[in-house]
Amino acid sequence: MKVKAESISNKEISRAFKLAASLLELHDDNPFKARSMQNAAFKLERLPSPISSMSEDEIAQLDGIGKSIQGKIQEYIDHSSFDELDNLLDKTPPGIVEMLAIKGIGPKKVRVLWKDLGVESPGELLYACNENRLVELKGFGTKTQDLIRKSIEFKQSNSGKFLYAPVESIALQLERDIKQSGLITNFSFTGALRRKCEIIERLELIVSTTDEKAFNEFIREHPLLEEKTIEEEKNELKATIAGQLALTIHLASEENFMSSLFYSTGSEKHLEILKNNFGWKENQT
User: How far apart are CA 96 and CA 227, in angstroms?
Assistant: First the structure.
């Protein structure tokens, strides 16, 4: 699916290069290539303007961005990924990718856990920690094992709660796809994402659609969403992304769009104050 380049942020592309670098290190691949990916991620984060808005000549003139990296950047802008990253993900169990995000272990340690201990998911790793199986591994020990256990337990205790950055990345992909469907006239993020909360429990967006039935069908077929979780309610669609992140799509008419955006953006406490002290009501114009 072709995406609008201008909607892709430098941070989004940078995260892809960081992941590719970690996967290269995990698979004990070319260290120079991994370092090149890391350097590209570092430079992308610090560019003052969106690289997706630059011409090929402008990108070629950037310090430290060679032809190979430039090609991967353009691939990501066009397809939201690049072939080398896809190939690395294809040969990596999803649970191993999750383990790369655990505090206290980098790609090299994850490789040891995977290859030497046969651990392939955070759940299996927690079980191994509880059995005290990490302390004998080279490069680990009691302190590292305790840190890993605490990191996994903390993440599990916050199940359903996500940091802003990964939610933003998913939200941007949804935005691109929904806008390209040709079924909406207005769109905005709302709720905790629009308030830029550090922790997000539900991704919310609001749209005005030209054909509600066709839009609902489009959402049902979207690859990010689990069809069995999609619920249609009055003026709302609710679903789950990847079995974890809750999603609500508010449907609003053009006339009520701004009022609905205001209402859905505010926290429950803020809205309660408006109702009790000012008599404000949803869809009030």
Answer: 26
